[in-house]
């Protein structure tokens, strides 16, 4: 039954294991051992709180912003990307999402990434290295709505491509915004076609929108060409 | 302590208020009083207007009453404060009332406090007066207020000041009528109470016959009153669905008003023509079985159903509010017309058992089952009769509850949901009512061999809040029950498609009023409707500022949608792949749930990125999604028609000194539309035990009587499972 603790529930991962025996971990006072929990939180995976709606996978929000004036490099990319937090349930997702700026309101050259827990939003990650992404370029003003639709479809497992989805990115640029969804196997055309069709449906895109699939190996190459790097050990 | 002291003052006060206004209701129709016109069209309007008038004389009589009652003026003024305390002490009402009854019964006036004495005195006075006079006022709407524990006189929307004003007005009205009536008990003070009461009795008996034809005049003309009443209440939407089918209008118009004035005289003629001794000749079998199936189908209710796997599965369901003894004791004034012997629990229990044996239902849904009686008597007795029983006591300090019992030879229990409506943190759902939802598998038991027959059956039983003013609470309680039914049914394969449903109980609502219509038509446009109108137990349209219903009807934290389903079970799909799928709408629906509004503990504050405060949920679309119409997905129909077309009389399922109406039901699921072939998940109604009318019952001295030992009648219906599922 509901009780007043529900409203105060701390659904934030971490403390679940140690309290599992009590059967209602969410009713424990969250103040206690806060420091300790914080440490655990870094290492432990997110779990859904009692009564929450679990997601098929846990996800992590990331945020990155290019420092103006400095040449992008693999290192600076990794330094600039910041983990915001992980979640395991619908409720936990909204807790992050509703405290985050909408992509359309972000300033500068910045990105939100939402990837399955354990997958870094980088081409080099094991899950990504043979993968690719669908890219949709959006005129200004559409990013917030499209991003929300995209990630809700991803969290709700609407793409129906098994474990293929890795994550999604929204990139705020100068004159346009770009959203993309990453999958594991770029060569699996059935999967990529299915993702494209689902994207069309869930994003409710204007008919003339151009969708482009790009493998990460191509992306790496293009990036290297652009930056004149020949023997980069990966990176962007 | 202070609370209970104050209560001692307040209870007789409010009791008197109600009895006096009941008087008004009665006289309003019977007499050619200046404030109330007899042509029907202004009966209630006029009555309402007259309430406003209070002359000096009337005020004087109020003061007189105060001094006669020995209540210090300050005490009376403290009424306002007392209201609040009384509300808080709602739980204690029952016990307090109980102790009152005991006091009165013993005839001992304990000299504990002036207040206590006053209470006792006026209580006795009312008892005596009731015998002679109030008894006539059966069905009067306001006197109803005395009935039953859970109604706490709550006046949340009206301040205490308004309450006392109302009291004055009613008092004024009462004395005005008393003057006209001459011999009547003009002052309700303890000293005058007894003689005046007996005087009223004589007069009542004498004039009853004479008044009869006049009253009937009032009945027929009051039917025409519908338009005036509707415009009076100023609720346009209501007109759309509450069709003025006059047979169903127990209240506020049509035969409903008829009943208000009708029963007293019937009662009296009954008392004069049918002395108590004669009543023992009646037997329970006096109620008639109505066969509704085709002629070739066997119809006896107690001849079990077909046992062969080919034959359709037939079963009977009884719904019976057996009147908890604690509640009887606490509301003794409602049973003044009864001989003390017929009110004794042992006597009633034997009678009720006899009814169970006589009708031998396969499923028994009981309400007002007192816990100790259940444990010590009912459960053992029913077990011996071959029933498996589940019981749920009401929450809080209530001693009664609901039970479902089923024949272990005919059903096996698949699952059970015990439903408490109480949500202490929600103002509107802090009531202690409960329900039970049971999933039963029809079986055939031959020796030790058990054969499953047909699809599972869902049986729900409840007793909704009584308070006639809080239709909003009743609807929310019903929504919880419907959501529980939805949940239990969906646990079946194919999401329970085809699972028939029987929903029965005491709904404390009369037919063809909004709550009833919601059940039977699957939707209700409630926006702006006054809360009292939902159940239709009483006509409170004279109230100036009634509580009204607006969206959302219940808080979103209840987790129930406007389609009466749990949010968490809404649109979740677990496909064969085992994946947890959520569609866009479902995810959005959780966006502003409380758990989702808290800032994640470890979320780093990055200016311009993670420094957003969530918008207030009130402004958000998922709240707006709670529409002005509530719906449910069950296709339910009442097993009874509430009106006997042969006798042209309204059926009643409950009757006591204040009130007679249909409030108990057996609803069953049917196929949506179409005839002939049975519906997927539908039940076919084969027959039912005919109900009685007030006119039948008052000659038997009303209820409870020597044969029917509750203030409700039992309902019994026979159904056939859809043969497609056999």
Automatic annotation (TrEMBL), chain A:
This is Eukaryotic translation initiation factor 4E type 2. Interacts with EIF4EBP1, EIF4EBP2 and EIF4EBP3. Does not interact with eIF4G (EIF4G1, EIF4G2 or EIF4G3). Component of the 4EHP-GYF2 complex, at least composed of EIF4E2, GIGYF2 and ZNF598. Interacts with GIGYF2 (via the 4EHP-binding motif); the interaction is direct. Interacts with EIF4ENIF1/4E-T (via YXXXXLphi motif); increasing affinity for the 7-methylguanosine-containing mRNA cap. Keywords: Acetylation, Cytoplasm, Initiation factor, Isopeptide bond, Phosphoprotein, Protein biosynthesis, RNA-binding, RNA-mediated gene silencing, Translation regulation, Ubl conjugation. Residues 1-42 have a biased composition (Basic and acidic residues). The keyword Cell division does not apply. Recognizes and binds the 7-methylguanosine-containing mRNA cap during an early step in the initiation. Acts as a repressor of translation initiation. In contrast to EIF4E, it is unable to bind eIF4G (EIF4G1, EIF4G2 or EIF4G3), suggesting that it acts by competing with EIF4E and block assembly of eIF4F at the cap. In P-bodies, component of a complex that promotes miRNA-mediated translational repression. Involved in virus-induced host response by mediating miRNA MIR34A-induced translational silencing which controls IFNB1 production by a negative feedback mechanism. It comes from the Eukaryota. SUPFAM superfamilies: eIF4e-like (SSF55418). The lineage of its organism: Eukaryota, Metazoa, Chordata, Craniata, Vertebrata. PANTHER family: EUKARYOTIC TRANSLATION INITIATION FACTOR 4E RELATED, EUKARYOTIC TRANSLATION INITIATION FACTOR 4E TYPE 2. Residues 1-52 are annotated as: Disordered. Belongs to the eukaryotic initiation factor 4E family. GO terms for cellular component: eukaryotic translation initiation factor 4F complex; P-body. One of its GO terms (molecular function) is translation initiation factor activity. It is found in: Cytoplasm, P-body. One of its GO terms (biological process) is regulation of translation. Pfam families: IF4E.
UniProtKB/TrEMBL annotation, chain B:
Residues 80-93, 120-136, 159-168 have a biased composition (Basic and acidic residues). Residues 54-218 are annotated as: Disordered. It comes from the Eukaryota. GO terms for molecular function: 3'-5'-RNA exonuclease activity. Pfam families: Exo_endo_phos. Residues 318-670 form the Endonuclease/exonuclease/phosphatase domain. This is Endonuclease/exonuclease/phosphatase domain-containing protein.
